Task: structure prediction
Amino acid sequence: MQARKRRSSKRESGTAYLVFGLFVFCATVAFVVFGRLAAPWQAFAALGAGAALGVWLFRFGTRHAWVSQLCLFGALVVCVALFMAADTVGSAGTAWIGSFVAGTNLGTAWRLAAAHRGRRSIKV
Result:
């Protein structure tokens, strides 16, 4: 006899993703600014680019799954490259990976909020 899975009618609102994404982003900025490594302009460029890529990838997505996999793999390659050049670019590797993680959570929160808003307007 197969056990039936219960489906909850309650949908995720994305608040947890939003709070966690903001926390990680603020922590990353604090670590870049007040950390032991230098914070040159490359670190702030990596901060913005990582967050933008994470939000784009998880909010808007792509039509093809291989493009998403390529972006995720590319983000990891960039992170490793920045960590290997830490003597030149300072804390850019930390800024990249922290802002990418924050961006993915913020993008997910944005996607869930947009879906929730869309369902609400249909019901009314």
Remarks:
- Helices lie at 15-34, 41-60, 65-84, 86-89, 92-123.
- DSSP finds five helices and no strands in the chain.
- The chain has a mean pLDDT of 81.
